[in-house]
């Protein structure tokens, strides 16, 4: 029986085996990641596609954006209609990369983290939910969600 308990401890410990973090603490300033994750600028059209995709980004499962052509938008997370007025691109980037660093225990998944994860299927170990380019695409898309400015 003692060997079974030892085996259980080893298996449980290995489930959260630590990988090298993709984002280092030195890249985070306050509640933001200032530098883009890629050299290629984000594409807002790709960002919208990812945001509305129920197979990739999954954003609309929890969030909504007024006027967005996506059925059954969620209400678990905050409304992101005017998120570009509230948060900078750098703040959005950190929230998408790993919201747990902003608000530990939050329900939002860490979309660009591959370390200290638990109950991850073998085929997905070491992988991220979104690529660095996907993150940048969504950041640009959400950054554009602002109230219209009057031309003066």
Can you put this structure into words, describing what you see?
The protein is mainly alpha-helical and 152 residues long. The chain has a domain at 41-143: Cytochrome c-like domain (Cytochrome Bc1 Complex, Chain D, domain 2, Orthogonal Bundle), CATH 1.10.760. Helices cover 32% and strands 3% of the residues. The chain contains 5 helices and 2 strands, in the order H-E-E-H-H-H-H. It has helices spanning 2-15, 44-52, 83-86, 89-98, 132-143; strands spanning 28-29, 32-33. The protein has a two-stranded antiparallel sheet. A hairpin with a 2-residue loop joins strand 1 and strand 2 (32-33). Helix 2 (44-52) crosses helix 5 (132-143) and helix 4 crosses helix 5. It is globular. The N and C termini lie far apart (78 Å). Residues 1-17 have low confidence and may be disordered.
Summarize the entry for a quick read.
By secondary structure, this protein is mainly α. Helix content is 32%, strand content 3%. It has a two-stranded antiparallel ribbon.
Shape: globular
Give the class from helix and strand content and strand pairing: mainly alpha
| Average residue-wise pLDDT | 84
Beta content comes to: under 5%
CATH architecture of the domain at 41-143: Orthogonal Bundle
User: What fold name stands as the CATH topology of the domain at 41-143?
Assistant: Cytochrome Bc1 Complex, Chain D, domain 2
Low-confidence stretches: 1-17
Q: What is the rounded distance between the termini?
A: 78 Å
Q: Output the CATH homologous superfamily of the domain at 41-143.
A: Cytochrome c-like domain
Order of helices and strands: HEEHHHH
What gyration radius follows from the Cα positions, in whole Å? 18 Å
- Output the strand order for the largest sheet: 1-2
DSSP strand count? 2
Helical residue percent band: 25-40%
Largest sheet, strands/sense/barrel: 2 strands, antiparallel
Q: What's the number of helices? A: 5
CATH class of the domain at 41-143: Mainly Alpha
């Amino acid at each position: 029986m003692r060997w079974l308990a030892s085996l259980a401890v080893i298996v449980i410990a290995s489930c959260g085996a630590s990988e090298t973090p993709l984002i280092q603490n030195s890249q985070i300033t306050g509640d933001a990641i200032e530098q883009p994750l890629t050299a290629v600028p984000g594409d807002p059209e790709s960002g919208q596609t990812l945001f509305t995709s129920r197979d990739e980004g999954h954003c609309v499962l929890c969030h909504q954006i007024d006027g967005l052509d996506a059925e059954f938008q969620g209400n678990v997370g905050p409304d992101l209609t005017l998120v570009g007025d509230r948060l900078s691109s750098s703040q959005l980037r950190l929230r998408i990369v790993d919201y747990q660093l902003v608000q530990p225990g939050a329900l939002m998944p860490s979309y660009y983290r591959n370390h200290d994860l638990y109950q991850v299927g073998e085929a997905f170990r070491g992988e991220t939910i979104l690529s660095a380019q996907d993150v940048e695409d969504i950041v640009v898309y959400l950054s554009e969600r602002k109230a219209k400015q009057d031309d003066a």
